[in-house]
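Quick start: read one record
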Amino acid sequence: MRIYLLILAAFLFNSCSKKAENEPEKTFIKGVYGHPAALLDKGYRFDSLGVNAVFVRSISLNPSFYTTAKEQGVAVYVEFPTLNGKGYVEAHPDAWPIDEKGQPSPPADWFMGVCPTHPGFREFRSLQLREILKEYAVDGIFLDYVHWHAQFETKDPILPETCFCDRCTAIFGEEINKEIPGENITEKADWILSHEDNAWRKWRVDILNGWVEDMGKIVKAEQPQAKLGVFYCSWYPADYDSALYKTLGIDPMAFAQRADVLSPMLFHSMKKRPSSWVGEYVSWLGDFVVGGSSLQTWTLSLKETSDLPVQTDLNQFPSALIWPIVQAHNSPGTVSPEEFHQVLMEGSKSPALGIMMFSAESIAQEPAKIEVLKKFYRNKN
C-alpha cells in the first residue's frame, strides 16, 4: 500500500508539474512600443496608464530610461533590428543584397536590408546583442526585421528577388550538393530559379531560422529567463503569391518553434485593412500556434498555392505566446481614437496573451489616444 501511495503521489506531482508548465501566463502584457520615453517626457507614468511592459528600440535604450521603467514596475523588452542593414551595407558593399540581374538591390523605400549570409554582419549583430544583455537585465529581446530584403508595411509591398551574391549561390550549391552553372550572377540566378526554385526558397527560410536560433542562443546564454520574441509580417500564406515564404523567407511555424513569443505586425491602416482584420488574424494564428488545429491545413494551403515544401513537423506543436502589435500611428492616413480602441480590442482577443501598440511617440502627441490607451489598459485583466 505504501509503495502504491508513493507511486500515486509521484504521478500526481508530475501531472501537476506538467499542467503548470502548460498553463498560460496569468499577467496579460499591455505594452507600448518604440520610444516610450516620449510618454515620460509628457509627464505620464507607465503605471498610471496601465502599461506593464515597454518595448523599446535598442537605439533608445539608456540607463536613465531603464531605471525609470523598472521603478515604475514595468517589464523592459528590447527591440533588436536583426537584418536591418542600413548604415552597414554602405560601409561594407559585399554585404549589399544582390538581385537576380547581378545588381545591388536598391533600398525598398525607407528600408535597407542586408545579405543574411554575410559573416561580418552576423558577428556585428551578435556583438551588439551581447553588449545589451551584459549592460541590462532585460525581460526579453524581440528580433525585428527577420526577413530578406523587402518592404511589406504598405498596401503595395516591394518584393525584390535576393540574394544572388557569389557567397549565397556558393553556400546554396553546397546545400544541394551541386555546382551552380553560369558564367555570371545573372546566369546562375536564372538556373537556380528555373531548376531549383523549391530548394532555393527552403534554403532561404532555413537561413532566417538559423538567425533566430543563433540570436536565441545568445539571449539564453546571457540571461536564461529572458524571453525571445519575433516581430514578423502578418500576411496569410497565400498573400502576394505566397511572398511571405517565397520572398520574405518567413515560416511563422518555424519561428514559433524557436521563439517564446510571436508578435505579428498588425498594422491595419498601413496595409489598408479593416479593423476587424486584426482580430481575424489573431484567431487564425492561434488556431495552429496554440491549438495546432489548423497547422496541417495551413501547410497544405501553402503547398497547394505555391508548390513549396514547408519544413514543419506536424507532431511538434510550438507553445509560443502571441502578443500582437497594433497601429496607433497616423501614417499613412489617420487612425482615429475610436479606430485605435477597436484594434486594441481586436488584437487582445483570445488566444492573445498580450498586446502592444505602435508607437509610443505618436500617441504622446495625441491626448485623446492616450485616454483610449489608459482606459483600455487599466480595465484589461
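The longest strand covers residues 75-81.
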